[in-house]
Every structure is written in C-alpha cells, then in structure tokens.
Amino acid sequence: MDQAHFAADEGVSNDSPNATFADILSTDIARRRLLQGSLGAAALGFVPGMAAAATARPSVKLGFKAVPVSTADAVAVPEGYNVDLLYAWGDPISSGPAFKADGSGSAADQERQAGMHHDGMSYFPLGKGSEGSTHGLLVMNHEYTDDGLLHADGMKTWSAEKVRKAQAAHGVSVIEVLAAGNRWKVVRPSPYARRVTASSPIGISGPAAGHALLQTKDDPRGLRAFGTFNNCANGQTPWGTYLTCEENFNGYFSSAKEPTADEKRYGLKQGGAGYRWHEFDERFDSAKHPNEPNRFGWVVEIDPLRPDSLPQKRTALGRFKHEGADVQIAKNGHIVVYMGDDERFEYIYKFVSENKFDRQHPEANRHLLDRGTLYVAKFDEFGGGVWLPLVHGEGKLTAENGFPDQGAVLIRCRQAADAVGATKMDRPEWIATHPKTGEVYCALTNNSLRADEKNPGTLNASNPRAKNVFGHIIRWREAKGDATAKKFEWDIFVLAGDPKHPDEAQRGNIKGDVFGSPDGLWFDKTGRLWIQTDVSTSVINKGDYANIGNNQMLVADTVTREIRRFLTGPSGCEVTGIAGTPDGKTLFVNIQHPGESPSERADPEKPTAFGAWPASQFGATLGGRPRSGTVVIRREDGGVVGG
Ligand code: FEO
Ligand code: CA
Ligand code: CA
Ligand code: CA
Question: Which residues line ligand 1 (CB under 6 A)?
Fold first, then answer.
C-alpha cells in the first residue's frame, strides 16, 4: 500500500540525529550539485567503476510498442498481446466456496478464497523442462483489506466474525495453475492449495527465537507467532521456498498508552487502529500485550510444495517494515538477501548467510536464513558505499545502548541501524538483481519530506532531490562482483518525473516514457528490468501527477537506460506483483486495489464510485465490487513477453 492512510501517514519514525549525510558532508555540497544542474558525478553514472560496469552489461531487446498513459478502467497491454484475468479476491483456492459479489461471504469462506489486495508474487514450476512453463504454483501476498468492500455493509457494524474475515483476507495464497492451450486456469481441486492468514500458526526461528521481547501470554516461549499480515513484496529462494515480507504491521495495533520510544520508532501510536481488530481480538491491544507487535515486521519463509509445513519467521533478517527480499547465490556460495525498509528516511539491508548453498542436498538449505550477518547500507557522496554489520557487541551495539544480545539487535533493528550511522533513504521499496551482471537495483518510491523544514540537512547524493515526489531508482555494484562484499559502488539509474512539470527539479531524467513512484522491480531472465508504479490514489491524475495517468508497468534496458511503458492499470489501482514462467512466455501481474477511493476505504453503498474493475473489463458476472486480481499476459504469437 502507499503510506497515505493506514500506514504511518506522518511517515517519519526516524528522528535519530546521527545518521544523515549532514554528518559526512555539508548539505551545501549536495545543494551546489543540484544548482549546477548536475546531481553529482555519482548520480550521472560517471563513477569510474560504474562506467566500466556499464560496458559489461548486455543490452536487451524491448520488442513492443509503448502503450500511452491511460485513465481508463481497464488493463491495457501493447498491440499483439493478450491480457486475461486469472485469480481475483474471493475466488476459491481449490474446490468451493464461490465468491459472493455483495461482500456477504463468511469468514469461513474467506479462509478458503483469495485474499484482498494482491501484492508480491512468485511462480514455482511443477515438472521439468517445458512442462514447468505450463504448470506450476503461484504464491502471492494479500497485503491488506478495504473493509468497505470486504463486508456487505462495510464497517457500519463490527463483530468478531468481521474481524475473523478481515484476518482471513490477509496473508498468502498458494494456488496451482495450468495452461490449457493459450489460457491459464486455477486447478481446482488442488492438493497444494493453501492460505496462510493473519491467524495461522507460524514458527519463530533464528537468533531472536525465544527472546524475552517475543514472549506473550499465548506463547510464553516466544517460538510460535500467530499469523502474518501486511505482506507486501516477496522473495523466492533457490531451494524452492517463498518469502513473504511483513510491512506496515504497526497499523494493526491499538493502545491506550503513550508509546515508548521503541514503539514510536516502529510507528506504533496511542489510539485505536483503523482495522479495529483489537475490539474483538485482544492481542492487537498492545497496551495489554506489549510484546505482540515485536512478533511482526519479519520475513516469513513458506514451503509451497509442502502444504502441511509450518511457515517460519526468519529473525536473522531483522525486524522492520519489510518491503521485499531479493535472494542471490553469491559466487562463493553464500546466500545474500537484499531488503528495503519502506518508510521515509529508512534503510537498505543485506543479509549474508553463514553457511553455503548446497545444490546437491536441498534439505541442507532449509535453515540457511537462520544464521548469518545482517548489514545496513551507507552510501557516500562520491559513488561509494559500505555495508555496516549489525552485530551485538560491535561498536555501539552493546547492552549499555539497549542491545543486550543479538536478538535485541534484530528486534530493534531500526535502532541498531541508527546507531551504526546508515544512510536514510527515500522509502526503499523493491530490490532486484540483474541476472547476468549481479548489479542491484532499488526503487526509492518518493519522499515528499526530504529536506523540508522538519528534516533539514537530509539531502545527499543518493537521495538528491528535496521534496522527492516522483522517486528514483538507485543501483549498486558489489566490490569485485562479490555479493557478500563489504563495499560497493553506486549510481542513480533514473530520476522519475514529468518532463512537462513546471518545477524543473521535478522533471527527472527519464529516457523514454513518463512515470513516478516506482515500487515493484523485477528482472526477467534476459535482463529486462520491469518497473511497477504505486502513485497514491490521493494524488494520482492531479497536481504533480496530472500527466502520468493510472499506475503502470514499464520495461527498462539497463544499458541504454531506455524505459518503455508496457502496461497501464485500471482506475484507482496499484500495479504490484510480477512473476514469469521459465520460458518467458507468460507473465503474471497483480492489480491491487482497483477502484480505490481517495480515502482508501470504499462506501459499501457505492462500491464502484471510483471504478469497477475487473467487471469493467472482463464482464459483469465478476460481480459488483472492485476486486484485486492476478492477470496473465501472453503474446498472441506465443513469443517471449517483452522481447
Ligand atoms: Fe506495500 Fe512499500 O509497499
Ligand atoms: Ca501495495
Ligand atoms: Ca508503495
Ligand atoms: Ca510496495
């Protein structure tokens, strides 16, 4: 979701004084660079190491005609492509129960149906070779709910049943999918079909497992959490598991008490939470259950091939507002996971496993994410950077500073990153690694507060724009191409913006089609970079965003930097979640919160006031309420999508 409503709308939990570039270099230098019309050598890709890297990057084909910006209530794809609806909110994961278009389905129904607000997604082939490209599992997140659409009368009445239904509409879906001819369908019934929801049992593993700060009345050992929610982006491991990332968990907790400094650092507030779970499920009352919020904000590993397996919260990857988890096998065999913390002025992290990936013994990889070192990124002003370890006992991460053990470092991960002096970024969203060069790209979606009067001195070369309304994509290359390296070189791949914007600073430097607020990033096998946007519904198609149309998906050639628009979404949606088959011929994309009201909560009496997708595009039988959904994109000639 965007941060406008349910999340930390003030948007800044990080008031640590010690972590901005103001400490490293005076703001004057950054400002001078902006005044020069330059964004610094690094920002333009003129860093020696990066320039050399550019020559090693293979160019890719963008073999499609761009689609224009759109405000239509439909998904548009290029000429010669088909788009089909596969799996929308309320569709059964296996046999039954059917979706009820008026929102009257029960909580028990919802537990066996697609959740709301589809987000990050991965495809797992079933079968070998070409068979794996026509038959597989799709695993996807359901980030949050619009309770105005979820229940027949919205939130006008409130009950334990509605809370249970809302919890069941969160979490993760596992569905089996099969291509029959040119059309994909959900296999029903399927032995793999599964929902993990906001109340499913989930193990807690890694260095913080059992920690005193994770113990609760219902789980005195601190080893078993209940549920996962606000699952935003995702990751996929080489041993065949899915990673789902808990983002704005703070918005689900209510408290009658003034929050502590630690609670504030994660955006917990005094007062009632908009989701109103606490009214019928006491564990969401954080005054009564102060450790319950500590059990969220993690990366959760799910094995989709074993429907009975217990998902695990992998605490070694740290606790923050996780966006996604990009998993790589380093040249030396260690596993590396890149992760963003999506809030204004938060950080970019990297986990390096202690043990190596073992291709021959899949079982040996099951706990690779439980032991290793978590690092946080510090970008310097000259195109270089370092990964700072978050290790108990090193530097300021000691008991005197509130870090008595490694568990505390991971649970208070943001405070640990503050303490080591990491770089505060413009909302790190998805991270994606080029499959051939190992170069890593991160979407910094926007930060309207950068360098404003409340945040003076926060401009720096890696976040070079004051009031960054359009966002940018930064990229880095690890030293010697080693993903486990402690140093890197970086540059800014693109500053998004509108070339027609009256304010020169907001025009950006896109070589190609206009967009803003990049969020989803994904590389296909050949190295095409897919970019998905999340402009908040409250600002889309007006003001700064008057010329940019509905949220969209674009494709970039990382060598030429050309960016071409491939898809536009329906009214009120975010485009997020992308996965492809191994042959590259099918692309799955998620359309989240179509028809969303600018207030982010629908009026159940006028549910289609702001859009009626997918019924608007695929037929009225799909029901009277907007529904998030997975679409399938194929080329009419059966070729590689985007190629
Ligand atoms: Fe759920 Fe940061 O997007
Ligand atoms: Ca979202
Ligand atoms: Ca976003
Ligand atoms: Ca996102």
Answer: 1, 143, 232, 247, 323, 342, 429, 519
